[in-house]
């Protein structure tokens, strides 16, 4: 992204002046509250003075930033948001996270739609059940008594929110909905719903969103500007430079952003824990591990709300440092080909563990591993009884050290007797001390989330929305490919196999994916791909069937003799119980594969990956992260800055030399 040209610099303040000239009258959110508190409008002179004051402050801040630090800033545009980024890495920004932000916007749009549908379904359910026992409904009796005591003057207002001098502040009415109507009644006891007089309808308030680690505020700005029906977006950061940059970018994006987004300087953990169940959506996107934020995050989400969490410490989650992963997430990872999916399941198990401490539980909606990070979207509910099912959703993993065989050990089980359900520990062990296929020992990992990590109904809705609004997503190609692959995954099969690893164990040539999938399908089992690995295959077939298929393949494609103690030799020494049928099956290709839809796309540019933490000095050793051109540009700027200082000091040194001589 190039630096801002002078001509564009002159146009931007003019554009901002025009955009902000109507802030006070059109999009100021506080005008809605002021209307409810008082029907007496302020005088024209006071409004004019306030408008001029807001306008001057806005223009002063922007002009000061643009005039004094013009060469240090560049404009970055993503979606409908534009931000000013400092060239010296003061605030973190990573272009590669556009995939993360796009898929989050798509999920939020679906969440708002689903939330509305659920609310309407609850209202219709209540409406059907209300006439059955009207006499026993104490809430209706209370309402009737209050109505009888209401003075006649209140009925003449038709639901207007009026404020008189003799009315106490507790009796005044406030409305949090952006679309305030004159004929709506104000009810201070209802926090999330507005009652409309006459029809008895209830409208939900727009969802409140918390971006707990905002940095430049780009994500919050995109939420506010691109998602229809979203409410207040609160951006929190513990870094002063980040908060200043976020506030500057809020002003830079005009009236829509100024009316919806607010920035606070605070520790995200403290802010979330002091606002329990206040936000419908909480977004965690830290630099590294989210583990320290999870406990406060699950408390801050409202019942039925959404927690969106990113983790970039993939080396830890994938088994590079198993003891570190256990200390952060409470699970031990295994270094198999499925390690990236296991990382997703470890994070989900950790979130569930934190939620259970407050009688809450999670329902995963979408779980994605892409690029250098993972992203999970879960809904959080409160129920002490439903929380008891958590042990049924967690399992330990036994991974053979000699072959690719793995087995899952559920933590708990249930016994149903009549109408009661007993919760008991799971049966074990599911494996002997030595692998029955190759005779080697097992490594044990976990516990992991072994229940489904996606809701296929949600995935279909998200994908349909993305295709319908493809021009709204800068990373449409990538996120549509990922969502398409996820929509074809087997939802109830944890982890996956690698066909190449199976063949490497047996030292044989690899069958094509179509042939192998056909053999599994012809054996009566299901099989699918995975979005995590283009070579991965999910199947509900047991390992004995998988190895029988490979034994039949090797019989038709012989291999060279191997030492008898090798795992491959031990596996091939056994005769197959199942005779595999390699005839091509109809379902051997998924719908996307049959239509030749791209599912795994290359990176759009070089050095597409993680970036330096904000505040760190960029040096030549960071060339692998940023690229040679970016490194040269930064180093040249440093040299220019260093050359300017000696010039200012040169006359002094010359004078000193003359005096000494």
Strand runs, count: 19
Query: Helix count, per DSSP?
Result: 24
Within the largest sheet, what's the order of strands?
7-6-5-8-9-11-10
**N- to C-terminal separation?**
52 Å
**Class inferred from helices and paired strands:** alpha+beta
> From the coordinates shown, what is the CATH architecture of the domain at 95-118 and 205-383 and 451-479?
3-Layer(aba) Sandwich
The CATH homologous superfamily of the domain at 95-118 and 205-383 and 451-479 is termed Vaccinia Virus protein VP39
Largest sheet: 7 strands, mixed
Cα-atom radius of gyration: 30 Å
Specify the helix fraction band: 40-55%
Low-pLDDT residue intervals, each spanning 5 or more residues: 1-41, 133-200, 644-661
Which percent range describes the beta-strand content?
15-25%
CATH classification class of the domain at 95-118 and 205-383 and 451-479: Alpha Beta
Global shape: globular
CATH topology of the domain at 95-118 and 205-383 and 451-479: Rossmann fold
Residue-averaged pLDDT, rounded?
A: 79
Notes on the structure:
The chain has 24 helices and 19 strands. The longest helix is centred in the last third of the chain and has 33 residues. Strand 12 and strand 13 form a beta hairpin. By secondary structure, the chain is α+β, with helices and mostly antiparallel strands. A seven-stranded mixed sheet has the order 7-6-5-8-9-11-10, sandwiched between helices. The chain has a three-stranded antiparallel sheet with strand order 13-12-16. Among the domains are: 232 residues, Rossmann fold, CATH 3.40.50.150; 94 residues, Phenylalanyl-tRNA Synthetase, Chain B, domain 1 (2-Layer Sandwich). Helix 1 runs antiparallel to helix 4, helix 5 crosses helix 16 and helix 16 runs antiparallel to helix 17.
């Amino acid at each position: 992204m190039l630096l801002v040209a002078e001509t564009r610099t002159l146009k931007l303040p003019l554009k901002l002046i025009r955009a902000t000239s109507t802030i006070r009258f059109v999009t100021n959110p506080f005008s809605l509250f002021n209307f409810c508190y008082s029907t007496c409008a302020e005088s024209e002179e006071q409004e004019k003075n306030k408008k001029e004051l807001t306008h001057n402050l806005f223009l002063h801040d922007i002009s000061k930033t643009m005039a004094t630090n013009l060469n240090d800033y560049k404009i970055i545009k993503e979606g409908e948001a534009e931000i000013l980024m400092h060239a010296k890495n003061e605030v973190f920004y990573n272009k590669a996270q556009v995939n993360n932000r796009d898929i989050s916007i798509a999920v939020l749009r679906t969440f708002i739609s689903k939330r509305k549908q659920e609310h309407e379904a609850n209202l219709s359910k209540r409406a059907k059940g209300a006439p059955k026992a009207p006499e026993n409904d104490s809430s209706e009796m209370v309402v009737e008594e209050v109505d009888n005591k209401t003075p006649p003057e209140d009925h003449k207002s038709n639901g207007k929110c009026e404020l008189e001098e003799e009315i106490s502040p507790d009796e005044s009415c406030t409305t949090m909905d952006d679309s305030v109507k004159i004929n709506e009644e104000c009810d201070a006891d209802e926090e999330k719903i507005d009652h409309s007089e006459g029809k008895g309808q209830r409208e939900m308030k727009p969802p409140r969103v918390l971006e707990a680690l905002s940095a430049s505020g780009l994500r919050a700005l995109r939420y506010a500007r691109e998602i229809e029906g979203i409410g207040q977006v609160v951006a929190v950061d513990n870094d002063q430079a980040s908060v200043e940059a976020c506030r500057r970018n809020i002003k830079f994006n005009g009236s829509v952003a100024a009316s919806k987004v607010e920035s606070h300087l605070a520790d995200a953990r403290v802010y979330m824990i002091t606002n329990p169940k206040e936000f419908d959506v909480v977004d965690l996107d830290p630099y590294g591990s989210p583990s320290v934020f999870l406990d406060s995050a699950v408390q801050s989400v409202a019942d039925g709300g959404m927690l969106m969490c990113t983790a970039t410490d993939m080396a830890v989650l994938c088994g590079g440092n198993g003891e570190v992963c256990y200390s952060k997430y409470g699970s031990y990872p295994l270094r198999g080909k499925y390690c990236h999916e296991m990382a997703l399941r470890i994070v989900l198990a950790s979130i569930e563990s934190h939620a259970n401490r407050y009688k809450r539980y999670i329902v995963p909606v979408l779980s994605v591993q892409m690029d250098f990070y993972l992203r999970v979207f879960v809904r959080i509910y409160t129920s002490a009884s439903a929380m008891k099912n958590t042990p049924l959703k967690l399992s330990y993993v036994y991974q053979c050290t000699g072959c690719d065989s793995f087995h899952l050990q559920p933590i708990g089980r249930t016994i149903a007797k009549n109408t009661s359900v007993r919760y008991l520990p799971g049966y074990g062990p599911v494996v002997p001390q030595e692998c029955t296929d190759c005779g080697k020992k097992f490594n044990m990992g976990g516990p992991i989330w072994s229940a489904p990590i996606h809701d296929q109904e949600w995935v279909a809705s998200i994908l349909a929305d993305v295709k319908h609004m493809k021009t709204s997503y800068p990373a449409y190609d990538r996120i549509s490919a990922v969502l398409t692959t996820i929509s074809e995954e087997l939802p109830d099969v944890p982890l996956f196999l690698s066909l190449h690893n199976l063949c490497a164990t047996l030292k044989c040539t690899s069958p094509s994916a179509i042939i192998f999938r056909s053999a599994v399908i012809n054996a009566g089992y299901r099989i699918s791909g995975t979005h995590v690995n283009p070579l991965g295959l999910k199947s509900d077939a047991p390992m004995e069937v998988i190895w029988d298929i490979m034994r039949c393949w090797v019989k038709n494609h012989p291999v060279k003799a191997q030492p008898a103690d090798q795992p491959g030799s031990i596996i091939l020494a056994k005769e197959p119980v199942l005779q595999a049928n390699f005839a091509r099956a109809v379902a051997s290709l998924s719908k996307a594969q049959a239509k030749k839809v791209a599912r795994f796309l290359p990176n759009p540019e070089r050095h597409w990956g993680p970036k330096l933490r904000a505040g760190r000095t960029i040096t030549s050793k960071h060339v692998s992260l940023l690229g040679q051109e970016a490194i040269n540009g930064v180093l040249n700027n440093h040299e220019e800055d260093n050359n300017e200082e000696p010039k200012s000091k040169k006359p002094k040194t010359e004078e000193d030399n003359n005096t000494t001589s």
